[in-house]
Amino acid sequence: MHRNDMLAKMFDNSKIWDFIIIGGGATGLGTALEASSRGYQTLLVEQHDFGKGTSSRSTKLVHGGVRYLQQGNVSLVLEALKERGLLLQNAPHLVNKLKFIVPTYRWWDKPYYGIGLKLYDLLSGKHSFGASKILSKADVLHHIPVIEPKNLKGGILYYDGQFDDARLLVNLAQTAEEQGAVVLNYMQAIQLKKSGERISGVVVQDMESGSETELRARAVINATGVFTDGIRILDDPTVRPMIAPSQGVHIVLDRSFLPGDSALMIPRTSDGRVLFAIPWLDRVIVGTTDTPVNALSFEPAAKTGELAFLLEHAAQYLSKDPAAEDVKSVFVGLRPLVSLGKDKKTAAISRDYMIQISKSGLVTITGGKWTTYRKMAQDTIDHALRVAQLKPNPSVSERLPIHGYDADAAKFGDLKLYGTDAGAIQELVRQNPKYGERLHPELPIVAGEVIWAVRNEMARTVEDVLARRTRALFLDARASMEMAPVVAGLMAAEMGKNEDWISDQVATFRKLAHGYLIKS
């Protein structure tokens, strides 16, 4: 996957694209894959890097949504459980089953949550990840020895899924390209072109060169997540907003706070959300909050109260109480919740998705969640086909392996998230042993991964490598800052950049990474 190759294909001015998709997160890349795998001429443009926003900042779960079952939204849970199973089927190198423990501190909680999770099992049907079961206090302490034992009555064990969101995004982009799509990061849609009253194309600006290009399309799809309303305003400045964004904050701790192979799930906290403590890439993620926000940003910041909330609740359920100085990184994601103007509390707004077609033919897909990205994409293309007036080809995405597919990726060790690409990275290291050197003693990331990201994954900046091609920024912000000069040097040698570029990249990344630290 090479950006210059993509640019050459985009600049073919004789082409009328069947679909131009705006937005390079889960929904946009999923839609690009859905369209291209059905045989349609597809172009996707993303103004920053793939997954720069919400799609790289999730709780790293592929799940049906226990909370939505609690709310009575059985149809959403059914759909998500099916899609959870399909993700494990199609991307086993990135998705794994994970045990969750729900501790109970009141005697009536055990049957209440036990029955609910048995229903969760039943709804999963053939896509089940494993049967739930009631646990005694001794069982809970066996699975999570560090759980707070005072007043512990027992608990429930159930299974859900876990994944690496940013790595899946990269693999979705690669799969879409393999299916014939053109996908471009750092390419911003700045204007919607119309023929009469109908949208006929998009004007895009290359954020690297500054050049502008007008592109023609049979249908334009807005898949920009929390930034949905901005594209809708390009179409019609009078539209009412449909997004009520909220932010979810996560803190990352050392693995010693939750050793073992089980995650902790608290069904209801004081703000009404589910709270998780999850082992992930040899760290522990604790999240998430739910706070309404008004201002949209690619780099949302955690509020002091949100951080205090997470530390307080982690201390409430873990015998080893984390303090601010124990936090390795803080990351914040914005949820594109769809509101019809009635809901005030974002935790109560539905995670269902919405597809809207404007009078001019702009197709907007928004809402939803990571787990259901494929179904959202399928429904979007089904609707967009009518706008484009194209012959409908059947969807094939349910059984389409994602790039890197390997059912036994664990054999690659620290490179397992690359799936079948791990062998190519290992070959790079064999050819140049320096590429096998770790970039930091705290993280198992080697120089060869930087080279691979530049050559094959369209990484353009130090941030692209340390935040999304690897997860260094999310796992340990301080360590990532220390890695930045070496990463910049490796990238500069590959990309033909000079010392000024290296200095600028290091300074820019370090400034960004400071926002992932708790301020003292």
Protein model, in words:
The protein is built from 16 helices and 20 strands. By secondary structure, the chain is α+β, with helices and mostly antiparallel strands. It has three domains: 183 residues, FAD/NAD(P)-binding domain (3-Layer(bba) Sandwich); 180 residues, D-Amino Acid Oxidase, Chain A, domain 2 (2-Layer Sandwich), CATH 3.30.9; 106 residues, Orthogonal Bundle (Helicase, Ruva Protein, domain 3). The strands form three sheets. Strands 3, 4, 5, 6, 11, 12, 13, 14, 15 and 16 form a ten-stranded mixed beta sheet that branches. Strands 1, 2, 7, 8, 9, 10, 17 and 18 form an eight-stranded mixed beta sheet that branches. α2 runs parallel beside α7, α2 packs across α10 and α15 runs antiparallel to α16. The longest helix is centred in the C-terminal third of the chain and has 19 residues. The two termini are 42 Å apart. About 2% of the residues have low confidence.
Describe the largest sheet.
10 strands, mixed
CATH superfamily of the largest domain: FAD/NAD(P)-binding domain
What global shape is seen?
globular
> How large is the share of residues in beta strands?
15-25%
Q: Report the top-level CATH class of the largest domain.
A: Alpha Beta
- The tally of beta strands, per DSSP, is 20
Radius of gyration: 23 Å
Output mean pLDDT.
93
Decide which structural class fits the backbone.
alpha+beta
- The CATH architecture name of the largest domain reads 3-Layer(bba) Sandwich
